[in-house]
Write a structure and sequence with these properties.
Elements: H1 4-22, E1 30-35, E2 40-44, E3 50-53, E4 58-60, E5 63-69, E6 72-79, E7 82-91, E8 94-101
Antiparallel strand pairs: 1-2, 2-3, 4-5, 5-6, 6-7, 7-8
């Protein structure tokens, strides 16, 4: 019975962090610190609470942590247009957000018109 209690507690805590952070949008989250050696980071949610995150954690509605490396947190966001990769870069305590979206494979190829040799 003693082994079950810590497992249940750990599951409850991880679910409560996901639900708590899931109510916020990316604009309401403040990125505080990155610890790349532990693949963890500290964020401040919209409610003002500090949360330690790691790859696999949901930090907002449709946003999942994919990687934490030196100076950067890689996120994946589900949007109406599909999955979007979001990089949060931390330099001198300031964070910048970069978004990368994969183009659909069925996009038409852009071709320049033929040169007019007159």
């Amino acid at each position: 019975m003693r082994k079950i209690v810590p497992v249940i507690l750990a599951v409850f805590l991880s679910l409560s962090v996901s639900v708590l952070a899931g109510a916020a949008s990316l604009n309401e989250i403040q990125f505080i610190k990155i610890a790349p050696q532990d693949a963890k980071a500290v964020i401040k949610g919209a409610d003002g609470k500090l949360v330690v995150i790691k790859p696999g954690d949901a930090i907002a509605d449709g946003i999942t942590v994919k990687e934490i490396v030196t100076g950067r947190i890689g996120l994946e966001e589900k949007t109406d247009q599909g999955l979007e990769t979001v990089f949060v870069r931390m330099v001198n305590g300031k964070s910048t957000i970069e978004r990368v979206r994969k183009l659909p494979e069925n996009m038409p190829l852009l071709v320049a018109p033929p040169a007019n040799d007159k």
